[in-house]
UniProtKB/TrEMBL annotation:
Main location class: membrane
Region span, Disordered: 690-713
Spans traversing the lipid bilayer: 6-27, 34-51, 57-80, 87-104, 124-145, 166-186, 206-225, 285-303, 337-354, 366-384, 622-643, 655-676
Name under which the protein is recorded: Solute carrier family 15 member 1
Organism: Chordeiles acutipennis
Keyword Transport: yes
Record's keyword annotation contains Nucleotide-binding: no
Location(s), subcellular: Apical cell membrane; Membrane
Function in brief: Electrogenic proton-coupled amino-acid transporter that transports oligopeptides of 2 to 4 amino acids with a preference for dipeptides. Transports neutral and monovalently charged peptides with a proton to peptide stoichiometry of 1:1 or 2:1. Primarily responsible for the absorption of dietary di- and tripeptides from the small intestinal lumen. Mediates transepithelial transport of muramyl and N-formylated bacterial dipeptides contributing to recognition of pathogenic bacteria by the mucosal immune system.
InterPro entries recorded: MFS_trans_sf, Oligopep_transport, POT_fam, PTR2_symporter_CS
Taxonomic path: Eukaryota, Metazoa, Chordata, Craniata, Vertebrata
């Protein structure tokens, strides 16, 4: 068999002492991670803005998908180890994965069902159905190949290439981080573009199409290297053996539950009738670690909200970083960037300093600190959310109406809301903020401007905003009550803009590429949506003579009424009235919570796997990996349960709830860690080897004595 192994390794082409096949595996992993994280970065905003789901449903479906992505690796490992082998499993599930990504990108094409060409899909159910099919196939694909690719890469090396194998894993994980970082930067930029056949909107087909293309590239690259791979045949899955051992022990213990049977030292010892002592001892070690995993899902429940709640939080913030405009979904890149910086800093500076202070910073204490830091990150998120909430406009509730006044004239105006509700003075060319009234009580308006008076009886529908345009003209006071039809702050940092014609003539108004049509004197246009953070040229045509000016920068998430005051061949004079203030809390204020959460990840995630592998035999790594991935899946399910059951109307309160839950779990874990006794699996394995040798020697002696006895006969 050694000759056969040698011939196989000679057949494998090598480059710089490494099997050439691993380069195909690394490129495959980079493309696959780009595909997955690129799609995931824009997913929650696709739910919210394209499918028009609310924040809670968008968050719920997002976390259901992530949970599924971390449940399917167990299925992938079973298929690879017990049936198809790693190569065939990767290829077949990558095909499923690519089809899923393609379906997902097709589901985002607005023109697919936009038959009336109004910019909105006519049959949202079709898009939802395609999205769900696509996401299910993606979860099956990405999860299924997750445990196979790195292990398949490790299989390419011979026993004497331990150093090269270690370097390969470093490069492999670097390709994962590079793919996720680049995709999280690039796909939000693609999403922010405008595209479409009949109408222009956010370019989700491109944002999902590029990850789909990268997955197809990943599959092609992997298949190209097919002849170079060393393919190990499936040898059975250790998880199945462990599960059978546990199942038999429970069944056997139940069968012998009466008091006449003597108790055994450990309940797993009831499996000794069928399974060998080594497997039972190894399973005991694994279960000891898995018991400590029970509180861990709560950490992931908070950690994975970076892609859902924190991204939605960023949509209500100002993303203007000077020359760069940051998209809400790009803020997720802060985590991988900080990871690259923090891992070496913590290993080279923080841990040695703690050691110098003679603090015994054990792995379990590190995990406890990680959970505490994640809890504090959500406290920071709650404080930030409270500040954001202060800047949000208050819209009229049931039975209420809101009115603001714009004085379009050159004289001051006094408006009384009757019967004797409120009196407001408005200077020329100025406007008030919105005032809230009980709709049933407000009956009429009395207006005084210059030496003229006017009265206006009003009937408002309620739960809406209105603008009262007042102007003292030569013929009397003109009072126009406009219906604003805006009941929420513009999403995605867009701005709402409308115009009022304060000229005596009819005009035609255009801003950027958007035409507001023809406006008669003292009439108003409808609101139109504009991307945030930019200036546009305003062009007014009056009596066939154009006049223009460049608008002010409107920020993000605002609404403005622009009053056309003067239009001559030389100049266009306008007045801006702010209807909804722009987002004023800067996205940079999210960096502290990302920093705290990244610190938590460094001491929690890295230490967690390290600790797990140090406390169980190497043959059980697959079981611990499955258990670790299961904690991530359960964490995402916890988000669904808590967010669904809490019924909290304020987002900051939900952040505090999650922080409190993790803090409580952190205390429970600290108690569990205090009573945990560290073991050395190698020592236990050595004892088992020694016992096997003794047993072997004993069996040999018995056999020799038997032979001797038989020969005497």
């Amino acid at each position: 068999s050694s000759e056969l192994t040698l011939s196989v390794s000679c057949l494998q082409p090598s480059c710089f002492g490494y099997p050439l096949s691993i380069f195909f595996i690394v490129i495959n992993e980079f493309c696959e991670r780009f595909s997955y994280y690129g799609m995931r970065a824009v997913l929650v905003l696709y739910f919210k803005y394209f499918l028009q789901w609310d924040d809670n449903l968008s968050t719920a479906i997002y976390h259901t998908f992530v949970a599924l992505c971390y449940l399917t690796p167990i299925l992938g490992a079973l298929i690879a180890d017990s049936w198809l082998g790693k190569f065939k499993t990767i290829v077949s599930l990558s095909v499923v994965y690519t089809i899923g990504q393609a379906i997902m990108s097709v589901s985002t094409i607005n023109d697919l069902t936009d038959h009336n060409r109004d910019g909105f899909p006519d049959n949202v159910a079709v898009h939802i159905a395609l999205s769900m099919i696509g996401l299910f196939l993606i979860a099956l694909g990405t999860g299924g190949i997750k445990p196979c690719v790195s292990a398949f890469g490790g299989d390419q090396f011979e026993d004497h290439q331990e150093k090269q194998r270690t370097t390969f894993f470093s490069i492999f994980y670097l390709s994962i981080n590079a793919g996720s970082l680049l995709s999280t930067i690039i796909t939000p930029i693609l999403r922010a573009q405008e595209c479409g056949i009949h109408s222009k909107q956010r370019c989700y087909p491109l944002a999902f199409g590029v990850p789909a293309a990268l997955m197809a590239v990943a599959l092609v690259v992997f298949v190209i290297g097919s002849r170079m791979y060393k393919k190990v045949q499936p040898q059975g899955n250790i998880m199945i053996q462990v599960s059978k051992c546990i199942g038999f022990a429970i069944k056997n213990r139940f069968r012998h539950r009466s008091k006449e049977f003597p108790k055994r030292e450990h309940w797993l010892d009831w499996a000794s009738e069928k399974y060998d002592k080594r497997l039972i001892a190894q399973t005991k070690m694994v279960l000891k670690v898995l018991f400590l995993y029970i509180p861990l899902p709560m950490f992931w429940a908070l950690f994975d909200q970076q892609g859902s709640r924190w991204t939605l939080q960023a949509t209500t913030m100002d993303g203007n970083f000077g020359a760069i405009q940051i998209q809400p979904d790009q803020m997720q890149t802060v985590n991988p960037i900080l990871i690259v910086i923090m891992v070496p800093v913590v290993d080279a500076v923080v841990y040695p300093l703690i050691k110098k202070c003679r603090i015994n910073f054990t792995p379990l204490r590190k995990i406890t600190v990680g959970m505490f830091l994640a809890s504090m990150a959500f406290v920071a998120a709650a404080i930030l959310q409270a500040q954001i909430d202060k800047t949000l406009p208050v819209f009229p509730a049931a039975g209420q109406s809101q009115i603001k006044i714009i004085n379009l004239g050159t004289d001051g105006a006094t408006v009384r809301f009757e019967p004797q509700l409120q009196t407001v003075n408005v200077t020329p060319a100025e406007s008030t903020g919105y005032m809230t009234f009980e709709t049933s009580k407000l009956q009429s308006l009395s207006i005084i401007s210059g030496n003229k008076t006017a009265a206006k009886i009003i009937e408002l529908p309620g739960e809406n905003r209105h603008t009262l345009g007042v102007k003292n003209t030569a013929t009397g006071i003109v009072a126009e009550l406009l219906f604003d039809n805006v009941t929420s702050k513009p999403e995605e940092g867009n701005n709402l803009i409308r115009f009022i014609n304060n000229l005596p003539d009819t005009i035609n108004v255009t801003m950027g590429d958007t035409s507001f049509g023809t406006l008669t004197s003292l009439s108003a246009s409808n609101y139109n949506l504009f991307p945030g953070g930019r200036k546009d040229e305003i062009v007014v045509i009056r009596n066939s003579i154009p006049c223009s000016t460049t608008s002010q920068a409107f920020g993000f998430g605002s609404a403005y009424t622009i009053v056309i005051d003067e239009c001559t061949r030389d100049a266009l004079n306008v007045t801006y009235s702010e209807d909804i203030p722009p987002n004023t809390v800067h996205m940079a204020w999210q960096i502290p919570q990302y920093f705290i959460l990244t610190c938590a990840e460094v001491v929690f995630s890295v230490t967690g796997l390290e600790f797990s592998y140090s406390q169980a035999p190497s043959s059980m790594k697959a079981v611990l990996q499955a258990g670790w991935l299961l904690t991530v899946a359960v964490g995402n399910i916890i988000v669904l349960i808590v967010a669904g059951a809490s019924k909290l109307s304020e987002q900051w309160a939900e952040y505090v709830l999650f922080a409190a839950l993790l803090l409580a779990v952190c205390i429970i874990f600290a108690v569990m860690a205090y009573f945990y006794t560290y073991i050395d699996p190698n020592e236990i394995e050595a004892q088992l080897d020694e016992e096997d040798k003794k047993q072997g020697k004993k069996d040999k002696d018995i056999y020799e004595k038997q032979i001797e006895a038989d020969s005497k006969l």
